[in-house]
Protein 1
Amino acid sequence: MAGIEGAGEVVAVGVGVTGLEPGARIVGVAIAGGAFAEYIVLPAVAVVPLPAGWADEQALGLVVSWSTALAALKPLGGLAAGQTVLIHAAAGGTGQAAVKLAKHYGATVIAAASPGKHEVVRALGADHVIDSRGGDIVAEVLALTGGAGADLVLESVGGTALEAGLAAAKRVTGRVVVYGLAGGEAAITDWDLVYKHQMHLIGLNIGVLAQAVPQVFGEVMGEMFRLLAAGVLGPGQPATYELAEGPRALPELETRATVGKLALLP
Ligand SMILES: NC(=O)c1ccc[n+]([C@@H]2O[C@H](COP(=O)([O-])OP(=O)(O)OC[C@H]3O[C@@H](n4cnc5c(N)ncnc54)[C@H](OP(=O)(O)O)[C@@H]3O)[C@@H](O)[C@H]2O)c1
């Protein structure tokens, strides 16, 4: 969702807030939005310190996109070294983090992206790249996995991609983590799960995860900061726009023209 993540300097803190002072530089998320602005009100529990030496915009993704990728791969997706993961929208803000993390954890990565973005995902370490616009994703994943299917599928596209993700997952032990529906809603029935796609179907909303199982979110963020310290994840390189150019950035998202994160500079 656009406009929920913001980074910058704390100008004031609410009554009862501890551990945060005006002047601190943070990145955080407001689920109801508000980041298309010079000032944003963020819940104190939803901010983390900006890594030292990073520009504000370089940290965009840390609390939403990167944590979603990490949660999808590890606590929810149970990815282990040697397994194969299919990552939809691999050149996007969340997808790029997922490719880097999955390679770090020793997985074989099959990345789906529009043709003009293939070099980006290859450079991140993807082992195989599939055309998300014209390719037959199921046939290609089955061919690349000797007919077995992927151990894990990260599904954020929705529409017909949901069905493709289910069909591309390994029978019985495969997991499909669904966290987005940029391409529209799709339905799946109990018949599908019993007779057609026998695998683990897992829904992920990082905001709900943080509220419902804060210990899991804490572990995800703890792992994230370890990976930052180890240099596995570095500063993001978002495409930047002046705040007033926001109306130009949104159609680019809609037409799938973007690569990675977009940042509006206040
Ligand atoms: N549940 C959560 O907690 C959570 C957290 C973060 C993000 N998300 C969701 O995850 C998805 C990815 O987030 P992101 O920040 O990585 O987005 P992004 O950078 O904008 O990436 C979106 C990419 O999805 C692909 N796509 C395929 N079909 C599409 C369609 N019909 N319409 C639009 N895009 C399509 C496009 O890549 P190609 O053209 O290369 O195929 C597009 O560039 C979004 O749907 C977002 O809402 C959910």
Note: The chain has two domains: 5-60+236-265, 65-207.
Protein 2
Amino acid sequence: MKLTVLGATGSVGASTLDVVRRHPDRYQVVALTGNTRIDVLEQQCREHRPQYAVVGDAGSALELRRRFASQQIATEVLYGREALATVASLPEVDAVMAAIVGVAGLAPTLSAARAGKRILLANKEALVMAGPIFMDEVARGGGDLLPIDSEHNAVFQALPRCCAGSKPPGVRRILLTASGGPFLTRAACDLEAVTVEQAVAHPNWSMGKKISVDSATMMNKGLEVIEAHWLFGLPADAIDVVIHPQSVIHSMVEYVDGSILAQLGNPDMRIPIAHALAWPERIDSGVPALDLFKVAQLDFQAPDFHRFPCLALAYQALRAGGDRAAVLNAANEVAVDAFLQGKIRFLHISQIVESTLTKLEARSVSTLDEVFEVDASAHAVASAYVGSLLS
Ligand SMILES: NC(=O)c1ccc[n+]([C@@H]2O[C@H](COP(=O)([O-])OP(=O)(O)OC[C@H]3O[C@@H](n4cnc5c(N)ncnc54)[C@H](OP(=O)(O)O)[C@@H]3O)[C@@H](O)[C@H]2O)c1
């Protein structure tokens, strides 16, 4: 199988290449993309020898070409948005790992969908911002869509095989598990002063910074509820969140006969990645088997929507439809970025998202251009709020 890895230099990208490395007879890397971390991309290209590497700008491309020339690496270096879309739709590529973080991942992932590639979808923002457009393109392109988010991959594994996006027969509801993040047991009043270091220190998973903060606010779970709605064709009322601090059950499907099917495993992204790469077969992911005796206990509790208002905001956005999820996502991107830069406090994140949703009047969106318009407006409104906090 020939692969493009979008976002190769990130956490999911690195885990993907780790699985690929274990199966040299099965997978061949055609293109790797990064944005700013060209040292990482250089090392990955040295190992996997792809035909193409894509970076964010002309300066990085020049530097990477210079390094490749001195090492006799034949990889062609491209840069920019168009290049991302190109390597996501190359005729010789069979599957595309969509692991660019944020809105930047939307266009290349759509390009892969249009070209009918097998999409290994880690970039949840594509579905959150443009769910119906994205699912339409996947259906038209005719490729497989396999979820990489561990929760959605678990649901996919626990569902009967059926078409993406349509309500699976016999399913009563989906139970998305959530670790609760690093602040699960903190009192609401103690959340005011938490630091960036504390927020990105996830108790069970090692991930990029943006998604780690999203886990701490539980916005990540909210985005996943929206993602599940589009992937599995279920309404908000049939998608519940269950706090499960051990992160051993990655999600569950409840059927009308009372059965609940769960997928369990160590919290390591190589499991869903290996599953999606090999589907419908199975391959070694490099992850040790789960030791049930060590786990010993599985705990569950209901989410606290009061302490984690981002989760409630995401449910509201899903129920309201139209542009609300795109506004939620854009405002959250701005807020998390400002938090990571030390400009705002942790509790400002939900305030910025809520205020942006209130300030921008709801509208319908049916084209990608409209999605990008909404994204730009929400970025502007949320950025202005950040600015007002600084002054
Ligand atoms: N990490 C996980 O365990 C996990 C689990 C489930 C889902 N996800 C989802 O998977 C996606 C990736 O997450 P991650 O944790 O791997 O993120 P990450 O470690 O921050 O990596 C993000 C990747 O995107 C690239 N990138 C960032 N901005 C870009 C831009 N403007 N143009 C092109 N490329 C850009 C980065 O390039 P540089 O690093 O070179 O700048 C990097 O390769 C996210 O949507 C996340 O929600 C992640």
Note: The chain has a mean pLDDT of 96.
